[in-house]
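Please complete every field before forwarding. Incomplete forms are returned to the sender.

SECTION A: IDENTIFIERS
Entry label: holo-146
Bound molecule: nicotinamide-adenine-dinucleotide
Molecule representation: SMILES string

SECTION B: INPUTS
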Amino acid sequence: MTEQRFSGKVALVTGGASGIGRASAQLFAKEGASVVVSDVAVEGGEETVRLIEEDGGEASFVEADVSKAAQVEALVGRAVEAYGRLDYAFNNAGIEGRMATNTADYPDEDWDRVIAINLKGVAVYETRDSPDAQPRSRLDRQQLLC
Ligand SMILES: NC(=O)c1ccc[n+]([C@@H]2O[C@H](COP(=O)([O-])OP(=O)(O)OC[C@H]3O[C@@H](n4cnc5c(N)ncnc54)[C@H](O)[C@@H]3O)[C@@H](O)[C@H]2O)c1
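SECTION C: PREDICTED COMPLEX
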């Protein structure tokens, strides 16, 4: 049997309910990691977990909105509580925002939403997961995949 790259490790994937996030979660699991799948989309997230388990992997779902610091903190806490550690975080959750709109016409609330999810959502992880900020997670910065 070939050696699994992430055997014994724990990976968190945000935006894991679909697309790149789901595929990454499945790959982490295939390589032996226990995967915490997170998303605002509960049905899709649970489906990702089902697909991983069907393939013999280990995963669990935690609902969280990455633009909300308190939810990110709770998510990291739940991951560590469930598996005792957290080795990797793929900060994949993101939105496209409104397309085909002139920059000047772009509504303020859309800017705010895109920045909150695509930028602040990742920055929050950087602070909540950094070794000095939250000793319980102790993620190495090099293991934070943005
Ligand atoms: N697919 C591409 O060509 C492409 C290109 C450049 C960048 N990206 C980025 O890659 C990432 C994944 O892309 P994808 O194509 O798989 O997109 P996708 O829409 O299939 O997946 C994004 C996931 O993020 C989740 N999400 C949205 N807002 C969230 C929030 N506030 N908190 C938690 N989860 C949230 C969605 O529910 C969805 O499941 C996104 O950040 C996207 O912006 C994708």
